[in-house]
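> forwarded from #structure-qc
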């Protein structure tokens, strides 16, 4: 779980909080969920598939 500021998140359930967040998904990770979706007022979010 992220906090205020920029976070790099790896896991099954993602909650980035405020700031620009990087969500990392890898082969074999199974089912993953991003729990907070920006409402348009948040900085950029990024999704990385590895």
């Amino acid at each position: 779980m992220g906090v205020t500021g920029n976070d790099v998140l790896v896991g099954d359930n993602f909650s980035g909080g405020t700031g620009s967040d990087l969500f990392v998904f890898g082969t074999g990770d199974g089912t993953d969920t991003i729990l907070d979706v920006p409402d348009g007022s948040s900085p950029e979010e990024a999704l990385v598939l590895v």
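QC bot note: The CA atoms of residues 5 and 19 lie 4 Å apart. The chain has a mean pLDDT of 70.
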